[in-house]
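Reopening this one. Same input as before:
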Amino acid sequence: MMVYVALLVFTYVFSVILSVAKIKDRKKISIGIFFLSITLLLTFRSESMGTDIPSYKFYFESFKHYFKWEKLFNINALLREDIEPLYVIITVMISKIFGNFRLYLAIIALLSIAPIWILYCNKADNPLLTILLFLSFDPLVMYVSGIRQGLAMAFVPLAFYCVKEKKLWMFCLVVFLASLIHISALVTILMYPLYYLKLSNKKMCILVLMGGGIFYFRRQIYMIILSTVGKIITKMGKYGISVSSTGAYSFLLFLLVLLFFCFIIPDTKGLSQDDLGMRNYLVFCVFIQIFSSVSYLVMRFSLYYLLFMPILIPRIIKKSRRNYKVAKLTEFTLFVLLNIWFLYKVLSLKGAANSYAPYVFMWKG
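Same output, byte for byte:
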């Protein structure tokens, strides 16, 4: 736990120093220091952190010793592997060229974090709140244990750029490549239509009623979805595709509060297309999270869209001139509560599967 406390304190102190010194680009520097720290923590973590790490080490060693270079150019050979082909290619290249699993973890960490780092540097308005929101949405679970999905999430900023520039075919290619690392990335195909979807208050009222109905019948609807697209996600069976009671309600409530805030507080006319698009992503996250109480698998799908929330919420606060006092009060309250929430999670996750807490250095694990 102390490692994460130290990370937050260091980030806060460094940000204050930059602000007092009136350093130019202090927002980008604060975010850069944070993500550099996260990359280093991922690099020097113990292999005992994350239940999937032994499996990834097995793949690494197997590819290093037994996978022949020429098989990289054989589509049939790649498809015969029991994991996604682009991940195979990346792992084979790193294992053959460098041959060290620790260096592999460092390269994967950099490839996974760097695109998110760049996205936040360019889009974030409030670095400290952005960092707290990022930690609150649990992406560290993927970066510590779910290496493939962490890599697939790195394609999200590029996909977002393609959406903004209306480069449909390039967008489809990016989504396809991401899905070749982790099949769950196919859910990002909805980024394009969601970004340009027009949601009025009237439509939101209809969506609220639909959400209530979906929540009531969520188990039955999930079973129908499984029977329809089950063949596509059969490979993800080991990640909890079956129906089960997960008790994941607190995060759904948290997202609902954020959604209410994003529609009620801001001056709608002052919102950019980016703001509106990311707000639509939040709506989609809420609908995904409705099903998280019946399957652990569903939680993975929302992570691709939750990456935008640390950008959205500070921007909504900034553009709430009509309700400025309420927005600033909300910002302060969020800052305090998110600190408490993150520290509570770090404590409660101790010993849990795929957990990133407690942090263990490589020389201690």
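So the earlier flakiness isn't reproducible anymore. For the record, The chain has 19 helices and no strands.
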